[in-house]
Design a protein that fits this description.
Layout: E1 2-8, E2 20-27, H1 30-43, E3 47-50, E4 56-58, E5 63-70, E6 75-78, E7 81-85, H2 90-99, H3 118-121, E8 124-125, E9 128-129, E10 134-141, E11 146-151, H4 163-166, E12 171-179, H5 193-199, H6 209-222, E13 245-247, H7 248-262, E14 271-272, E15 277-279, H8 282-288, E16 300-302, E17 310-312, H9 318-336, E18 345-347
Parallel strand pairs: 2-5, 3-5, 4-18
Antiparallel strand pairs: 1-2, 6-7, 7-12, 8-9, 10-11, 10-12, 13-15, 14-15, 16-17
């Protein structure tokens, strides 16, 4: 277990932003993770758990406490059952499942971060969410002081949310178990219209796993959503805002605002989100409120490839990023009456 003091955290995040931690521990086994958590809790020291750093916005002053970087490894595939250590690189794990001919997470290819973060955020993209394949999550329960195994139902998954996100101070994810599908080399049924269009098939169809993965990677790369150190459009946390889910009444009011601003006949994106609810597009809201690709003149700007990504152009501070985020939130609220919610976790700062 490695220990550093006054350790920079910015290099551990995809934004490349944030000040140092008082103490940084890198744990490579579950036992080391648990020991580090117990020590911090016993001493009453604030604890920040870091995986791949792809969903973190750390304040410029850094973190006054112990930052725990989980670097555990473990990829165990038995039939269609997969167990991943929390520190496994998610994108690499997905690639290995495709190589093994198993379906279920192929449309989550190219997503940065660690396996342990996927259940916390209920990571999803292109019609798939990890909640559809996760069977169990093994975690250290800080409140009970013991390791527990939570079933899928106990994880309380919903759109970009889970029991872990709802109670962030309680659980530290150690391992994630999945049940995949052997569909003779074919993908799971495609549920995202953009992916189906790119493949020239209909939603619900299956395609070869390799083809599905390659298509998703191309779509993500075209939006700056595949990490590339030379491309500042990828110096981000991917989608910075979640897609709003509105009640029927809220959606009706939203449609009226759209008509007033953009003219009769303009219909906003609308997707079913459970009885009495409709999901709309945060990217569409941002664009139609006037924040187009590349918006901004400072060191933090909207991606030139996708309006939903806020980026560090190389010399930004966290405050630069938050100033831009607040401007977008205010602009969308004034234009459409909807308040966007940030998807990344903020540390020491808030919108």
């Amino acid at each position: 277990m490695q220990e550093l003091h006054d350790a920079p955290l910015a290099p551990l995040t995809t934004f490349r932003l944030g000040g140092p931690a008082t103490r940084l521990i890198t744990a490579t086994t579950d036992a080391e993770v648990i020991d580090a958590v117990r020590e911090a809790d016993a001493a009453g020291v604030p604890l920040l758990v870091i995986g791949g750093g792809s969903n973190l916005v750390i304040g410029d002053k850094g973190f006054d406490g112990t930052a725990l970087r989980i670097a555990t490894t473990g990829f165990e595939l038995t039939g269609t059952t997969l167990e991943l250590a929390a520190g496994e690189v998610w994108a690499d794990a997905v690639a290995r499942t495709v190589e093994a001919g198993l379906a279920g997470v192929e449309c989550l290819s190219g997503i940065p971060g660690s396996a342990g973060a996927t259940p916390i955020q209920n990571v999803g993209a292109y019609g798939q969410e990890v909640s559809a394949t996760i069977t169990e999550v093994v975690a250290y329960d800080r409140r009970a002081g013991e390791t527990v195994t939570l079933t899928n139902e106990e994880c309380a998954f919903s759109y970009r949310h889970s029991r872990f996100k709802a109670d962030p101070e309680r659980y530290v994810v150690l391992r994630v178990r999945f049940l995949l599908e052997d569909a003779d080399g074919l993908s799971a049924p495609l549920r995202y219209a953009e992916t189906a269009r790119a493949l020239g098939v209909e939603p619900g169809d299956r395609v070869p796993l390799d083809t599905a993965r390659e298509t998703v990677l191309k779509l993500r790369a075209g939006k700056g959503m595949v990490l590339d150190p030379e491309d500042h459009d990828t110096w981000s946390a991917g989608s910075f805002f979640t897609n709003p889910i509105l009640t029927d009444a809220e959606f009706d009011a939203f449609r009226a605002r759209v008509g007033e601003r953009l003219g009769d006949g303009v219909e906003p994106p609308a997707y079913p989100a459970g009885q009495g609810h409709t999901k709309t597009s945060a990217a569409w809201l941002i664009d139609k409120a006037g924040f187009t690709k590349g918006y901004g003149t400072g060191p933090a700007r909207i991606s030139t490839k996708h309006t939903l990504a806020l980026t560090n152009r190389g010399a930004a501070t966290t405050e630069d990023l938050l100033t831009l985020a607040r401007e977008v939130v205010t602009g969308v609220r004034e234009a459409f009456g909807i308040t966007l919610v940030n998807e990344p976790v903020t540390v020491g700062v808030s919108l």
